[in-house]
Structure formats: C-alpha cells, structure tokens
Specification:
By secondary structure, the chain is α/β, with parallel strands linked by helices. It is built from 5 helices and 8 strands. α1 packs across α5.
Length: 191
Amino acid sequence: MSNVLGICGSPVRDGSTDILVREVLRGAASKGAATDYIFLNDLQIMPCQACGKSPEKEYCFFRDDMDAVYEAFDRCDAIVVGSPVYFDSVSAQTKLFIDRTNCFRALTPDGPEKFAFRIARKRRGVIILVGGEREKLEPARRVIGGFFVWAGITPTDFLAFSYDGFEKGTVASDAATLSKAFAAGIALIGP
C-alpha cells in the first residue's frame, strides 16, 4: 500500500491551499493509499542554522516538531506540498520546512560529490500553489521544485489556483480545480 504525505504551508486552516492539499490526498486514498497530513503552521520548527554538520543517524541535531515531519517523510512513497504565494515566493511556513530538509544530503568533503544523498528511495510529488496570476507563480514553483530535486522527488503534477482576494477557501466552489486536485492524487499513486 502506498503512503502519501500532504504538507500544507498555509497559515489559514480551511483556506484554498489546505483544501487542495486535502483533495489530492482524497484522490490518493480513493486508490487505496494511506495518507498523512501536516499543517505546518501548527508546528514549532526552529529555522535552519546552517551548522554544516552532518548528523550520523538523524536528519538534524535540533529536536523540535520537525522530527515528526522527518518521520512522516521516511514513511511516505509520495508527497504533496502546497503553499500560498506571498511576494512571489512560498509562505514562511513552507520555506522553513524546506530549509530544514537541507540535511537530506550529508556533507562529504572527501567524496566524489560534495553532498551524499541520504534518502534511499525515490518519491513522486505534486506541487500546489495558490495566489495571483499563474504566470507570476513561477518563482514559488521553482522553490518547491528545487526542494523536489534536493530530496529526490519526481514531480507528477503542478496545480495552480490563481486568486487575488482574501476570502477564505474560495477554491471550494471551483469544481474544475477540485476535480484536477482529486485526479492528481489518483495519478500520484500510479497505474
């Protein structure tokens, strides 16, 4: 059975980003996948301190709520990362999470690569962005896309919900976008 991890980087529970991440998970669950969901705004995560050290067994030296995220990542076969777009980038919550995954690769100054990949299996992933015009979402997509490269995640879909208002959860009335999110969850599991 596949396990899909949903990461919501919005500070707004039941907002459009939250709804879309959950809808992708619902699609994956419809194909028999187990799902985990993390609402980053609920967690206490210390910012990366660029210590440059490579922990032997654990991902990071800091003990905080990121430990549960690392454990969920270890369990998952696929991941969904959703973020609202603020000032052409991902939310602070999403960036904090991404920065703390720096330790997915360990520094190896004497090896052929500067960073050795610490994650044995490859995963698939979906990127979700909620914000203004689709053309203006590219910088934020590159941030999550860079994380996907760093963590060995192959993107299977990019969902964008263009919205420039402040009403909470407006995607809930957009049947076409919800349908795309559900289908992305099904595709994430594969044939």
